[in-house]
Specification:
Low-confidence stretches: none
Number of helices: 8
CATH superfamily: NADH Oxidase
CATH architecture: 3-Layer(aba) Sandwich
Number of strands: 7
Helix content: 40-55%
Largest sheet: 5 strands, antiparallel
Length: about 220
Amino acid sequence: MQLPVGIPLPHREALTEEERIARARAFADELVLRRTVREFDPRPVAREVIEHCLRAAGSAPSGANQQPWRFVAVSDPAIKRRIHAGAEAEEREFYRHRATEEWLQALAVLGTDSEKPFLEIAPWLIAVFYERYGIDAEGRRHKRYYPHESVGIATGILIAALHRAGLATLTHTPSPMGFLNDILEQPRNQMPYLLLVVGHATEDCRVPDIQRMPFDAYARFV
């Protein structure tokens, strides 16, 4: 099959092998310091920082280049308050009725419960949605290919970009999340993927004493 005529690959700086290793090591050393945070400071974060991090997320690869991700960055206190109320309503149901005992035990080490004050304290919430299907100008539906995988990759890049910008994050996934469509007026072909809490950690922030899997346990070379 003949490929369509493309454009030249954007210029990238030529690196020696030693420079590549140094960059890869520095990036890994920085990312391994990332921790999920639940204690946020209300200090503001400039919108421009969030915009650049979202631009980085939008560079992710996607199935058939359909780019099925949609991000809604929220700083309005009234909207954050509504999201807080909607999320906690679902969380109370989860902890009281939906979660199995095994699931609750797995969460216990993290010290989480149905109370989520950080949803109003943190300066930004980024609601991440994926398109189940596209809708063209005539109202016809079009299949989206690998939307979960594509949005997962974009979200990972977003988290890395926010960490690189010196910000703390928390991935929050109340279930179900349909209230986000209602509050943020997103169409029903867009499904909530997760809610990303973004801001500064408090100066006395504490995180669970947990360990990451050793490298040899999750990676091998053949």
